[in-house]
Amino acid sequence: MHLAGDPPTDRAPGLAEVRVERSGGGTERDWVVVEEPLQIRVDGENLAVTLRTPGADRELAAGFVFTEGLVDAPEDLASVERARDVIESSHPENTVNVRLTAAAARELPRRREHAARAFRAVAACGVCGKKTIDSLRQTIPPIAPIAVPRELVESLPGRMRAEQRLFADTGGIHAAALFEPDGRLVSLFEDIGRHNAVDKLVGHALLNGPWPLAGRIILTSGRAGFEVVQKALRAAVPVLAAVGAASSLSVEMAREAGMTLYSFVGPGRGNRHV
User: Fold this and answer.
1) The whole model's pTM is what?
2) How far does the chain reach from its first CA to its final CA, in angstroms?
3) Which domain holds residue 111?
4) What are the backbone dihedrals phi and psi of residue 261, each rounded to the nearest 5 degrees, phi first?
5) Is residue 187 part of a domain?
6) pLDDT of 18-41, one tens digit each?
7) pLDDT for 86
């Protein structure tokens, strides 16, 4: 953790300087995580607004449209770009437009209505009823399980923590990391929202590879709630580990899909849900 008042050695866009009063008196500067809205558009039409930490906005938008079921593969994306001027958006720095290929655009109305129904169900009742759950499962591809030693999984939080630059500067941000089965770190993204961190991770793979994510591991710094598990399942990830707790629905979803789910992972500890 950075010392109070020390500026980060490499200032990131996700940091903001603030003044704080310490216990015992006296004020000094400190650093907090930036939280700002990002407007995500698809072919110029507003899709969603999410509160995120700036940085990897293109990846976040690409991951979001994929994990929400609006696209299925990198080939569905024609471009993912920040709004170019104030005519396109009053806040171009906080707007990303996802343009689809012609084939994907033809499927968009049907996919968008399915996503809207799922969102309304989640917002209204927290995912209630068997029909709603079955509807949300429809976009999950087959999962091919892999065998990963427990000791390797339990070592991953330490490897992720060593690369969490914004956490080192602020102590208050989530992370999601992608690992190969041998424990090699592929990519890592931080965000104030753990679901956003997963979307950034998935979006980066969509735009830059490796893709698909079958055969790899995702580790999240937060808990393994339903939304995080569903996003990982959409990307066909066979192993998901979380530093925090799992929920009953996330355990159920992972078990039925064939995903290996770990919670409370750390050095010498971890609950594998069976």
Assistant:
1) 0.87
2) 36
3) 36-137
4) -120, 130
5) yes
6) 998 888 888 888 899 999 999 999
7) 46
